[in-house]
Amino acid sequence: MRSGIWVPEYDTPELWHKEISRRSFFKYGVGSFLGLVAMQHFGTTGNAQLENVIPSAKRCIVMFMSGGPSQLDTFDPKDQSEKNSGPFLPIPTSVNGIQISEHLPNVAEQAHHLSIIRSMVSREGNHERARYLLHTGYAPGGAVRHPTIGSLTSYYLDDDESKLPSCVNINSPTYSAGFLGAAHDPFMVNNPMKPVDDISYPAQMDTRRFRERLKMLKNLEKDFISNRSGLGTETHEAIYKKADELINSPKIKAFELDEEPEEVKKAYGMNRFGQGCLMARRLIESGVKFVEITLDGWDTHENNFERTKELLDVVDPAYAMLLKDLSDRDLLDETIVLWLGEFGRTPKINQNDGRDHHPNGWSAVIAGGGIRGGQVIGSTNEDGSKVVSAPVGVPDLFASLCFALGIDYQEENISRSGRPIRVVNDGNIIEELFV
After folding, report:
1. Contact partners, residue 392, CB within 8 Å, separation at least 6
2. Does 203 fall in a domain?
3. Which of 24, 214, 389, 433 gets the highest tally of CB atoms within 10 A of its CB?
4. Please, which pLDDT band fits residue 241 given cuts at 50, 70 and 90?
């Protein structure tokens, strides 16, 4: 039975990762062996049905709906006759028996790729706490800075030969890599519709001059670094090296959307979210392991229905086109695409025609990366106020993402005081996603 909700156990200082980890397996190209290890490991944790499942995802895209979208107005619509349902109607999808909001008609055509979880639950109804939880799998507490799922993906799946950052965030800054070090912090793209910052030399600078300055900096730092070896020093050097490689890599064109046909750009939507999804596809094609695209504005305490419709008009073409594009390019089977916010919205419509925070029953949607599509997992009651079947906690979702990516979610990080912190705390794999 799934644990559902995480309870904090450790409030420890800065953490350090074990010397030996699964990252070494990926680094030296033995992914096939990892599949066998994963089967053996997960088969001993009460997930017998997963024994024959070999993780197939190699990368991940997250569409984060900041503010918390209403599940009733997106992926868990209720009959209009039901209490508090609102004016949006459900429509059929490409999968018989599955309905979603009428304002997601293009996504409805891609429902055969989707696994819709309608039974997400958590204890976090505060935006900042919930965002931290939905990015790291841990509730915030103490001095610990947990890595995001993007930084974890970068750490375990990073290709040392790639000249692009392994983790990229588009439209909004996010949390750091925490104890994994700054080398796995996300690279930030503030606006995909404008030239990307920090991927070219300053004016009157070229490769030769830049590298000469790096040599001079290294000489200046030599004595300091020799007496202070460790993760911080290694990270400092790695960041400068990575920046130089990025600026001089031909793969940097993955950030340049002008290379795309105009009709493709329009199909995604001529807005920051739509173009962010297009950039995500280009980055994934070029070797980036994790991309998050943020769409803000979902905190709809007032005027929920008009604002939600406007947001869905942005989401629908971009989300559907991303799935179709990845599928057409034979990338979807190896790419997880996750849609979610930090929580849902109350079924009850308040006096301002809005919906308030609701962490006790909301929706997340997963596609690709070996996930079984065309299904609904869990359910809420008639008015959507609570989960009535198959509750899924955030740690369960994170454990499932890690499993799909071939990451051992039970691997431990050790604090300076010697206490273990797992990649995912107290979560269990959602079997229905894979079998």
Report:
1. 2, 4, 117, 119, 120, 121, 364, 377, 378, 430
2. no
3. 433
4. low
Answer yes or no: is 19 within a domain.
Answer: yes
Give the Cα separation of 84 and 343 in Å (integer).
18
Q: Is residue 266 part of a domain?
A: no
How many domains does the chain fold into? 1
**CB-CB contact of 362 with 120 (8 Å):** yes
Could you tell me the maximum CA-CA distance found in the chain, to the nearest angstrom?
Answer: 74
190-210 per-position pLDDT tens digit:
999 998 876 666 666 776 776
Distance, in Å, from the CA atom of 50 to the CA atom of 431, rounded to the nearest integer, reads 7
Rounded distance, CA 191 to CA 131, Å? 21
Rounded Cα distance between 128 and 103, Å, is 28
CA torsion 55-140-67-358 (nearest 10°) is: 90
pLDDT in tens, 55-103: 999 999 999 999 999 999 999 999 876 677 899 999 999 999 999 999 9
**So what's the pLDDT on residue 100?**
98
Q: Nearest CA to 231 among 158, 167, 156, 177? A: 177
Task: Give the phi and the psi of residue 308 in degrees, each rounded to 5.
Answer: -65, -40
Residue 155's H or E segment, with its range, is helix 149-157
Instruction: Report helix, strand or coil for 340.
Output: strand
- Strand stretches in 104-202, DSSP E: 114-121, 167-170, 187-189
Reported in sequence order, the residue ranges of 103-151 that DSSP labels E, i.e. its strands, are 114-121
The residues near 280 (Cβ < 8 Å, ≥ 6 apart) are 61, 168, 170, 291, 293, 322
Quote the pTM value. 0.84
Query: What stretch of H or E contains 272?
Result: helix 272-285
Give the 3-state secondary structure of residue 413.
Answer: strand
- Segments forming the whole domain that contains residue 428: 15-67+77-197+289-433
Query: What is the spatial distance between Cα 217 and Cα 378, in angstroms, rounded to a whole number?
Result: 56
Residue closest to 403 by CA, chosen among 375, 378, 424, 373: 424
DSSP code for 261: -
**CA–CA separation, 229 and 332 (whole Å):** 41
> At a CB cut-off of 8 Å and minimum separation 6, what does 220 contact?
none
Domain holding 331: CATH number? 3.40.720
Q: What is the mean pLDDT of residues 355-364?
A: 98
pLDDT of the residue at 181: 81
* Residue 15: pLDDT over 60: no
